[in-house]
Structure formats: C-alpha cells, structure tokens
Design brief:
32 strands; 22% strand
Length: 641
Amino acid sequence: MTPVLRPVAPDVRETTEIGRYLDWLATNRGHSFDNYAALHRWSVTDLDGFWSSVKEFFGVRFHSPADAVVPDPRMPGTEWFPGATLNYAEHALGGPSDEVAVIAYSQTRARTELTWAALRDQVARARAGLTRLGVRRGDRVVAYLPNIPEAVVAYLAVASLGAIWASCAPEFGARSVVDRFGQIEPRVLLTVSGYRYGAKDIDRRAEVAEIRAGLPTVEHVVHVPYGDHDLPDTLPWSDLLAESAPGFEPVGFAHPLCVLFSSGTTGKPKAIVHGHGGLLLEHLKNHGLSWDLRPGDRLLWFSTTAWMMWNALVSGLLTGASIVLVDGNPLHPDLAWQWRLAHETRATLMGASPGFLMACRKAGLDPAAEFDLSALRQIGAAGSPLPAEGFHWVRDVFGPGLLLNVGSGGTDVCSGIVQGSPLQPVRAGEISGPCLGVDAKAFDEHGAEVVGELGELVITAPMPSMPVGFWGDDTGSRYRETYFSTYPGVWRHGDWIRFTPEGGCVIAGRSDATLNRGGVRLGTAEFYAVVEELPEIDDSLVVHLEDPAGGNGDLRLFVVLRDGVLDAPLREKIATALKSALSPRHVPDTITAVPVIPRNRTGKKLELPVKKLLLGARADDVVGRDVLADPTALDHFGTLA
C-alpha cells in the first residue's frame, strides 16, 4: 500500500462544495455517505438518483421538463433527460454584474478584463451579429482564435442560438485546420491575422487565406483584431457587435453544443459531437464537486482553443467562478510566469501540466516562497502521468493544506474519468480514483475486471458527457467501432490503467502504445518515471517493435540528454535503474540519444507515430506536423527507420 501523502481534511464537510453536497443529499434526498467510496458507489449504481441530484443541487434550468432521467442505461445509444430543453450559455452568464468574470493575459496585447455585465452584453451583441449573418439553430460556426475573451464571447453566443461551435488554435497550419473544420461544413469563420508567441511575431494571413479557400461552405469571415495585421474582405469584430439581442434558444438535452477533434495522431481527426445538457451537467459536477469551484473563485489553467481543457476552462463560469485566459508561450519570459499569474489573479485553482511541474522541480523553483499564493486551494494536473517525485515536490513547496488533484480523462468525454477531490486522500504517484458518476474499471482481454494489475480502462455505465456521436457518422458505426467493439456494451477508453485495492489508480500510457514483450504487457509511463528521474536525462520515449514469431521483439528507448554524451557507463546506469525499479523485461535492447521527444500540443508523447516511423512509414503519413509541439521532432526518427 502506498502511504497517504495528504489525508482528507477533517473539516471537509464544512469547507468544500462536496461537503455541502453531502449535507444537501442528507437533507433533501435522505442519503448519508460516510466516505467517498460509498458516495461513488451510489453515483454509478443509481444513475437516476445521482444525476437528478446534480441537476437540482446546481440549479440547472429546464425550459421544458424531462420525461425521465435515463430510461434505458444500456450503451451505446443511452438517452438522457428525454423531453427536456435547456441552453448551456444561459447557465454560464449568471454572475454578479459588477464582479470580474474573465481576466485575460497575452503576449500580443495588454491584460484585459470583462465583468459579468460586460460579458453578458458582448455575448448578446455577438448573438445579434451572428443572427444578421444568417446563423440559425444547427449551423456551424468555427474559430481560428487564440485563448482570448473574444473566443469565449463567440462560443457562448453561438451556443445561445443553438448553433454549433468548433475551434482550432492559430498555431495550427491550414491543412490541419481544413482537415478538422472541413468535416462539419461551417457557415461562419472567426479568425485572427496573427499573434505574438513570446518575443516572436507570428503572421497567419497566408494560413487564413488557405483556410478560406479550403472551406467552400464559409459565407462570412469575421476578423478579430489581434496583433498588427489587417485582413481584407472580412467583417470587423466591432461590426459584429454593433447591436444587441439577448436571449437563449431552448434546445434538447442532446442538441449539439460543440465539436471537438481528436489529436489526429492515429489517423484523420475524429469530429466528436458534445451536447448542451451533457457538458453542462458533467462540468457542474466536475468543477463543483472535484475542483471545488464556487462563486468568487478564480480558475487559471493554461490551454489553447484546440484542447478540451479550453471548453472545461470556459465552464468554470457555470459555477460562478471567474476564469483566467492565457495566450502565448507559457514559459515566457521564464518558468515562473504561470506562478506569477496565479499570484496576480489570486487563483484558487491552477491547472499545470505534469511536465511543467517536473520542470519547476528540476529547476529548483519555490513558487510558494517567491509569490503570494495563499488563495490557491488546488493544483490540477492532467495531460500525462505525474511521477511520484512531482507529488512530493508539490507537498514540500505548498504544504499539506493544498490539494494536488491529478486526473486523466479526454476529449471523448470532455472531462475527467479518474481524478481526485477534497473527499479523497492523495498518495504519491497515484490518481485518487474514479470520478463521481464514472464507473471506471480495468478489464483484461477477456472482459474480466482486474485490480492490482494493468488492464484496459473501461467505463461500464453511461455518463451524460459521452459524445452525442461523430459528425457525419449517420449510422453510428464508427462511434461503436471506436468505443464499443472490444467489450460489447462497455466503453473502452484506450488507456492502460492499474487500480489499487485502496481505490487509487495509475495510468500507464495509451493501450495502443502498450509494450507487449513476450506476452507480458508493460506500461510506457513506468519507464518514464524511472528514466527521467536520472539527473542525466531530460526526456525519454520508449517503443516496442513486435516479433511476428512471438519473441521478445525489439524494445527501443530514446533519451534527451541534459548534457554530455550517451556513453557505455550511462547506458549501463539506465539499464540498471530499469531492472532494479521494474524488472529485467524493462531493460531496452537499444538506447539512443535524440535531440527532442515528439509530443503533441497538450504534452502527450507520441509513441505510436514514432513506432510507425521506425517500421518504415513516412512522417507526413503518421501525423500532421501541426499536431506537434515541435514541428521538427519526428525528423530524427525518420533517419533511424
């Protein structure tokens, strides 16, 4: 058993939203739960009771009542709250008029703020402008925008009309954008002409022209002023906001709110459709009961508009919290910039990638000593596994009062599947457990639940934010093949996970990149936790090339050196560390130094594209360069094929 690093606070019932929810359940529903495990068990076995309680506790407003909560819980095809009508945007705009709703930092322009009154006014004006352009319920509006207030305003305006939103960050190239937006045939495109990334000016006018040419259904292009460039033949943002027409179109619970796109690292990006009601209920539950957000709080989480975390960030408004938008290079001018923003904004929850936390640890930063972070109650970490050393660093720097909430979820559900909450203990190197309302388990290849060993991450009961479907997949065949072909009636998420007897879990990497060596499956995250703790190593990636005859195959480890050379003593040191910490099976056949490890823009290592390259595929066929955080990251691997 892994020792508890941070126990549940004794005053959790009096000081947190999940404590308030437990009291509400006892008073209004007659349900009493002594611990998280009991609450979670109820949340996945009484779907009607749990999700109706979320609806009532958070004050979700239905314009038309629901006939039931979930008449038939079988997957796929589960229907939630049939007959109900509502609107996501209506719930995101309810804060006190004179208080700040949005704070925006940028390397392109000065800090800006919007009060709740100003946010409501701009959304009403954007709504009127889109209506003048002919946008109606079901039309698609797409945005080639950074994480700026105008993107939030446009998203909520589109939602208020019952139209459908999709966004890409402007660092994406034209081909990647057209591959995504072209699938949904948009009517309106909102775009910037450029931006500043750190100290570098980026001109995107050529990319915008190419995107316009590649999207023949676009009738109107709206230019959001950002940077120093103009865009010809476009409607200025100020003209779009010339008039006001507040209102919210009631739509069905499953009516499409937005389309999110998969990363495109394993094929053409999937256009994943999420509904108004599903994201509304899921994010209220997640942000309130896990992230402990409430009116007056501040949510700071660096994201681009191409990541589901952006949608989750905007949903901070649902709880009455204000949100902090950050655009530009998150490490400019230095590693401390995000901590400085947390200080300036009095952030109560700060999101941080595991890579960022580990970089701060390696650099010897002590942000709690350098800045006033006394308002900070939680640090959220997602995007990749966080090694145990990262847990200890956060505890050492911030003390036992702060909750480190490590989670894992995905674009597919636009939320967390496993993570922590104030009602769960924190153990170093482990995620605290399944989220409320998420019946997450590990299955072996036969569909049997396993505990204490690696298995496929599955969800055995439906949750409202499972996608409405894939755009253009009219028969649902691609949707079923993606999630339900391995275990009929059970959602297979695609991650490799190990649950502990105490209820915690460890994500061991993507299951399609899991190493199968001589019939024994090895998780990639286990390698990284050992190798990257060595002082000589900055980053690493491991792939396994299978032996068609069933032998051990070829296990290849790639490392980025902090300095020096990869000589025989260092190779022996790496092999010995893996053998002693894990097993002899984890010792690689080859260890190769490379200049950079390929990652996507959310920080995930791209094991599968590297594996395909080593097997002879062309780089442009395995992943679009715009998906890569460093467009040159795959070049070296192509020479090693």
